[in-house]
C-alpha cells in the first residue's frame, strides 16, 4: 500500500484566496483525521471522519474551514478565504479501528502571503 | 482539558549512548499512549502504542513504559545512532480517536 497520500505537498497563496487540500487514506481504513501543525500550537486535531461521516469537528478553528469526505478514498480540507495565520503544515491520517495506530501522510505545507 | 508535556525540549547525545525521553499528561483517564517519530519535512511515523492496561512495549532498541497513575511515560532508546535523529512526539488518547500531542523532543545523535 502506498500509505496516506496528500496533495499538494506545498501550496503558496495570497490572502483571500481559496485553498483546497486533498487526502487519500489507506484503503480499508474507516477513520480519517485532519491535523494542523504550527510552531506555536504544535499538532492539533481539526476534524475526523468515520465511514465518511464527520464525527468531531470541534477543532476546526473557524467557519472559513470546511472538510468533506465524499467517499471512502478521498477527503478535502478547504479554507475560504485564507489568511496568513492559516500558514501551517496540514496532515491527514487514517486508521483501521479507533484504538489503534494512526498512519500519517507527508503533509501539505501551506503558506498564505 | 488534557495537556501533554515532553521533557527535554531538545537533546544532543554522542552516538552509542542510551537515552530517555519523558512525557507527562494531566488526565490519567487515557485509552492509550503513542510515541511517534517525525523527520524534518515529513509526516509522523508511529513507533510504539501502549494500551492503558499495559505497562510497556518494546520494538528493537526502543522501549516505552507507561505509568497511568502518575501520568507519565518514558521512551528509552538503547545504543543511539545518528539515524535516530528526529523529533519524538508523545500523544495520548481518551477513548475514541482524539489524540492530544505533546510539543515533542528534538533529538540529535552525533557521530
Descriptive account of the structure:
The complex is a heterodimer of chains A (113) and B (111). Chain A is mainly beta and 113 residues long. Chain A is built from no helices and eleven strands. Helix content of chain A is 0%, strand content 55%. In chain A, the strands form two sheets. In chain A, strands 2, 4, 5, 6, 9, 10 and 11 form a seven-stranded mixed β-sheet that branches. In chain A, strands 1-3-8-7 form a four-stranded antiparallel β-sheet, with no helix packed on it. Chain B is mainly β. Chain B is built from no helices and eleven strands. Chain B is globular. The mean pLDDT of chain B is 94. Chains A and B meet through strand 5, strand 9 and strand 10 of A and strand 4, strand 5, strand 9 and strand 10 of B.
List keywords for this structure.
A: mainly beta, four-stranded antiparallel beta sheet, globular, B: 111 residues, mainly beta, six-stranded mixed beta sheet
Brief summary:
The complex is a heterodimer of chains A (113) and B (111). With 113 residues, chain A is mainly β.
Question: Mean pLDDT across all residues of chain B, rounded?
Answer: 94
Helix-strand sequence of chain B: EEEEEEEEEEE
Q: Report the uncertain regions of chain A.
A: none
Shape of chain B: globular
Cα-based radius of gyration of chain A, to the nearest Å: 13 Å
Q: Quickly give the structural class of chain B.
A: mainly beta
Largest sheet of chain A: 7 strands, mixed
**Class by helix and strand content of chain A?**
mainly beta
From the alpha-carbon coordinates, what is the Rg of chain B to the nearest angstrom?
A: 13 Å
Task: Reconstruct the topology from this structure.
The complex is a heterodimer of chains A (113) and B (111).
Chain A (H helix, E strand, L loop, with lengths): L4 E3 L2 E4 L5 E6 L6 E8 L3 E9 L2 E4 L8 E7 L2 E6 L8 E8 L7 E2 L3 E5 L1
Parallel strand pairs in A: 2-11
Antiparallel strand pairs in A: 1-3, 3-8, 4-5, 4-9, 5-6, 7-8, 9-10, 9-11
Chain B lengths: L3 E4 L2 E5 L4 E7 L6 E7 L5 E8 L4 E4 L2 E6 L4 E6 L8 E8 L5 E3 L3 E6 L1
Parallel strand pairs in B: 2-11
Antiparallel strand pairs in B: 1-3, 3-8, 4-5, 4-9, 6-7, 7-8, 9-10, 9-11
Amino acid at each position: 500500500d502506498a500509505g496516506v497520500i496528500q496533495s499538494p505537498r506545498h501550496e503558496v497563496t495570497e490572502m483571500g484566496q481559496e485553498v483546497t487540500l486533498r487526502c487519500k487514506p489507506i484503503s480499508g481504513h474507516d477513520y480519517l483525521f485532519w491535523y494542523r501543525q504550527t510552531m506555536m500550537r504544535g499538532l492539533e486535531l481539526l476534524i475526523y471522519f468515520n465511514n465518511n461521516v464527520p464525527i468531531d469537528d470541534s477543532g476546526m478553528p473557524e467557519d472559513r474551514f470546511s472538510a468533506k469526505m465524499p467517499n471512502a478514498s478521498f477527503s478535502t480540507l478547504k479554507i475560504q478565504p485564507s489568511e496568513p495565520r492559516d500558514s501551517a503544515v496540514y496532515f491527514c491520517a487514517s486508521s483501521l479501528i479507533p484504538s489503534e495506530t494512526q498512519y500519517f501522510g507527508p503533509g501539505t505545507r501551506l503558506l498564505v502571503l | 482539558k488534557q495537556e501533554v508535556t515532553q521533557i527535554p525540549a531538545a537533546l544532543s547525545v554522542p552516538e552509542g549512548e542510551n537515552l530517555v525521553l519523558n512525557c507527562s499528561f494531566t488526565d490519567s483517564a487515557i485509552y492509550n499512549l503513542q510515541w511517534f517519530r517525525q523527520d524534518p519535512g515529513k509526516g509522523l511515523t508511529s513507533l510504539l502504542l501502549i494500551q492503558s492496561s499495559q505497562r510497556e512495549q518494546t520494538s528493537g532498541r526502543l522501549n516505552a513504559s507507561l505509568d497511568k497513575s502518575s501520568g507519565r511515560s518514558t521512551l528509552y532508546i538503547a545504543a543511539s545512532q545518528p539515524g535516530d535523529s528526529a523529533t519524538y512526539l508523545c500523544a495520548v488518547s481518551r477513548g475514541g480517536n482524539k489524540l492530544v500531542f505533546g510539543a515533542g523532543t528534538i533529538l540529535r545523535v552525533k557521530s
